[in-house]
């Protein structure tokens, strides 16, 4: 009788223990796994802002060509300059970005060919905002080359004559091509090298010795820049 009671008590204790343990085990099986996010991954996600800015030193190298309609064999040349330049980029995807380039410079206009004796005709300031759509290659690690194409609208202001008593270069649209690369030092900072070609051929009107002349200034400048990149 005592042995039977002992066996019964053991069976009852085992059953009670199973009833207590089974729900906890089932809950553990049903709970989703919560793997911690690596800190490096979290930092990389946080660093991928769509906004980027660059500050460059920019060399503006013009094509020395142009003509005066009323004078055969005439030609023009322009001064080259070095200026500071700011651009703002917005990444639509990891590979596609839009870039707005802002900077201003001046150009001295000289007579060449049959009008070389005129010397410096005048001077104009140039504001050539340029918008390009770029493709960025992302398979080279910290080295990030890109190509782009877009449109330029150049405004001419503060124009003055020298040999000419008046100079009026007309605002003009033009196409733009671009190639460049960023080398990222870390997630935010990098260095940049960039080359653009603007196709810019504005009409102009000038007055020399009381006579009005018209023509076309074939500027077609190269914009060669180097500077610093910051990705927000």
Automatic annotation (TrEMBL):
Q: Does the keyword Cell cycle apply?
A: no
- Note the superkingdom of the native organism: Bacteria
| Keywords for this protein | Signal
Which N-terminal stretch is annotated as signal sequence?
A: 1-27
Q: Where are the transmembrane segments?
A: none
Work out whether the entry's keyword set contains Glycoprotein.
no
Q: Which InterPro entries match?
A: OMP/PagP_B-barrel, OMPW
The record's similarity note reads: Belongs to the OmpW/AlkL family.
What protein name is recorded for this chain? OmpW family protein
Q: Which organism is it from?
A: Rhizobium wuzhouense
């Amino acid at each position: 009788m005592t042995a039977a009671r002992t066996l019964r008590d053991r069976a009852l204790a085992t059953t009670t223990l199973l009833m207590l343990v089974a729900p906890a085990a089932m809950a553990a099986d049903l709970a989703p796994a919560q793997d911690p996010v690596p800190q490096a991954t979290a930092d990389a996600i946080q660093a991928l802002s769509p906004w980027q800015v660059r500050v460059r030193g920019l060399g503006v190298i013009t094509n020395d060509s142009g003509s005066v309609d009323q004078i055969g064999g005439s030609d023009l040349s322009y001064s080259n300059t070095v200026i500071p330049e700011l651009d703002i980029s917005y990444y639509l995807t990891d590979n596609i970005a839009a870039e707005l380039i802002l900077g201003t410079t001046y150009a001295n206009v000289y007579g060449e060919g049959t009008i070389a004796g005129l010397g410096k005709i005048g001077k104009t300031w140039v504001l050539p905002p340029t918008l390009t759509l770029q493709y960025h290659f992302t398979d080279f690690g910290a080295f990030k080359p890109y190509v782009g194409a877009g449109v330029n609208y150049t405004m001419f202001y503060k124009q003055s004559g020298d040999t000419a008593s008046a100079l009026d270069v007309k605002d003009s649209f033009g196409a733009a091509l671009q190639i460049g690369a960023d080398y990222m030092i870390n997630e935010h900072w990098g260095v940049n090298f960039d080359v653009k070609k603007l196709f810019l051929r504005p009409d102009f009107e000038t007055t020399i010795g009381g006579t009005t002349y018209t023509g076309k200034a074939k500027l077609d400048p190269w914009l060669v820049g180097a500077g610093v990149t910051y990705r927000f």
